[in-house]
């Protein structure tokens, strides 16, 4: 890698050889001689010096074309250029429209491991294809599905199951049927959303049953839905039903559990579950309609 470092030392000492292109495509830089081109080959083991050169000094993220530079050779990403008001964040010189084609060419020659390598991904990807892969990588960690707080914990499914049990004190059940009771003394007030989460283990998988009250317009609405602790392609192998009733009436919902890749709010706001209006919920509760007493039952099954 010493030759690569020497190349970049030479690049920064002669930044004006890099002219702005006529379009946004990556083009070859004629200032690279054959010797330098020969040393920059795909290599999984990328030195920390090269990684630093490809890191934007403002946002600290990896840079992708167009990579901009000032007249002194300092670089930054296109997303941060407007943020610094066209001034180099390193030397304060005006940035202009100089593009660092040499650095773009070096980046195009690299192959790197997925950032989710520690979670089990063993793939090696071209620098410019790595970002797309990581956005879809099946090994990328899941976010905590608990909706009652802004929890920032991420991890694989076993880690999140233990986290829900130990840190959020979520009820854990084995089995594919459930009987969920929800009681609220004053159903006319939903100042803060009320969340209830139960985790069920069945078919060797884990499912999250959500039940919550939230404000829709001026009236509280109650919704129950199921999320699958895994990816969407696996979630489609299962179905579930929910039932709520009272006073000789009942409502039934049947659907497919949503993956926890979809946020709790996204699922809730799409009304993809059993939705109960307040008046109907109070009717099911019976009595003087001053206290909410709902019993939601259901089951999970695997599609053949």
Automatic annotation (TrEMBL):
RING-type domain segment(s):
56-92
Cite a single Pfam family from the UniProt record: Sina_TRAF
Question: What processes does the entry annotate via GO biological process terms?
Answer: protein ubiquitination; regulation of autophagosome assembly; ubiquitin-dependent protein catabolic process
| Name of the top EC class for this enzyme | transferase
Per UniProt, the keywords (alphabetical) are: Endosome, Metal-binding, Transferase, Ubl conjugation pathway, Zinc, Zinc-finger
> EC number(s) per UniProt?
2.3.2.27
Tell me which InterPro entries the record gives.
7-in-absentia-prot_TRAF-dom (IPR018121), E3_ubiquitin-ligase_SINA (IPR052088), Sina-like_RING (IPR049548), TRAF-like (IPR008974), Znf_RING (IPR001841), Znf_RING/FYVE/PHD (IPR013083), Znf_SIAH (IPR013010)
Query: What catalytic reaction does the record list?
Result: S-ubiquitinyl-[E2 ubiquitin-conjugating enzyme]-L-cysteine + [acceptor protein]-L-lysine = [E2 ubiquitin-conjugating enzyme]-L-cysteine + N(6)-ubiquitinyl-[acceptor protein]-L-lysine
Q: What is its main location?
A: cytoplasm
Q: Which cell locations does it reside in?
A: Cytoplasmic vesicle, Autophagosome; Endosome, Multivesicular body
Functional pathway: Protein modification; protein ubiquitination
The entry lists its GO molecular-function terms as: ubiquitin protein ligase activity; zinc ion binding
Q: Which GO terms describe its cellular component?
A: autophagosome; multivesicular body
**All copies of domain SIAH-type, residue ranges:** 109-169
Q: Family, per the entry? A: Belongs to the SINA (Seven in absentia) family.
Q: What does this protein do?
A: E3 ubiquitin-protein ligase that mediates ubiquitination and subsequent proteasomal degradation of target proteins. E3 ubiquitin ligases accept ubiquitin from an E2 ubiquitin-conjugating enzyme in the form of a thioester and then directly transfers the ubiquitin to targeted substrates. It probably triggers the ubiquitin-mediated degradation of different substrates. Mediates the proteasomal-dependent degradation of ATG6, a component of the autophagosome complex. Requires TRAF1A/MUSE14 and TRAF1B/MUSE13 to target ATG6 for ubiquitination and subsequent regulation of autophagosome assembly.
Name listed for the protein in its UniProt record? RING-type E3 ubiquitin transferase
Q: Which organism is it from?
A: Hibiscus syriacus (Rose of Sharon)
Recite the lineage of the species.
Eukaryota, Viridiplantae, Streptophyta, Embryophyta, Tracheophyta
